[in-house]
Write a structure and sequence with these properties.
This protein is an alpha+beta fold. Strands 4-3-5-6 form a 4-stranded mixed beta sheet. Helix 3 runs parallel beside helix 6. The radius of gyration is 18 Å and the shape is globular.
């Protein structure tokens, strides 16, 4: 957990450093998230950090009720996130940035005191504190990239992606179930990390399907930032196309 927690802190710090350099115009720049500018992306991250604090402290339902006060029930998770941003976006960017910083501090405290094996409530149901931490790392990484793209910055991938790639592999059954599809067998990932290291995620039994290639590209696909056809990823086996189509790192 210490290595994972450190990776989350490093990713949060990387985004904060990026935000420190933004002009007012850059805060208003459109992001890769449809309909959201940079300020909206950061607001969304602050809101979901607040939800994660609620999760880690046993107050998830209470926090979610506060964030969605006055809103109509959402059809799905994405619609709910969009509604929360729309309902709270009319504030100066300084307020958004301060809210982000408070959410970062609060989340670090909440996760630091929690047992990584405890099961807590999250959007997709019950999960361990360790998995919750990984999902926060994954979402922060995705949206750090969104801010960088929106403002013309370049953010190089790091070995923090190991945890995100592992999350994508471990949650494949959830991704398939969410789409109403079935896996025909086990899957392995044979990836190359940003530093050139080999990252193999393999099941105990022989894998029916194998996905190989760049870990950074796999994480971009799982974060819905790249289409599989636009990558060098290679899949073999009966579920190869479905894995690359359905793999995800968020609820």
């Amino acid at each position: 957990m210490d290595e994972l927690f450190a990776a989350l802190i490093d990713q949060q710090d990387a985004l904060t450093e990026l935000l420190d350099d933004l002009s007012s115009a850059e805060w208003a720049a459109p992001s890769p998230c449809d309909g959201w500018n940079v300020a909206d992306v950061v607001l969304h991250l602050a809101q979901t950090n607040e939800m994660a604090i609620g999760s880690a402290t046993g107050r998830f339902d209470e926090v979610l009720t506060e964030l969605t006060a006055g809103m109509e029930p959402a059809a799905d998770v994405d619609a709910g996130a969009a509604a929360m941003v729309a309902g709270q976006r009319e504030v100066p960017v300084e307020v958004v940035r301060d809210r982000w910083l408070r959410s970062v501090s609060g989340l670090r405290d909440a996760l630091g005191f929690a047992d990584p094996h405890d099961r807590v409530t999250w959007v997709a149901g019950l999960l361990s504190v360790r998995t919750l931490t990984t999902t926060r790392l994954a979402e922060t990484w995705i949206h750090t990239g969104d801010v960088a793209i929106a403002t013309g910055r370049v953010v190089a991938p790091t070995d923090r992606l190991f945890h995100i790639a592992r999350l994508a592999w471990r949650t494949l059954p959830y991704a398939f179930a969410r789409a109403g599809e079935s896996m025909s067998g086990s899957v392995s990932f044979e990836l190359t990390g940003p530093s050139g290291d080999r990252w193999d995620f393999v099941p105990e039994e022989s894998a029916h399907t194998v996905i190989s290639g760049s870990a950074a590209e796999l994480c971009d696909v799982a974060g819905r930032r790249l289409e599989p056809a636009d990558t060098s990823l290679v899949g073999t086996g009966p579920d190869a196309e479905a894995v690359l189509r359905l793999v995800r790192t968020y609820a």
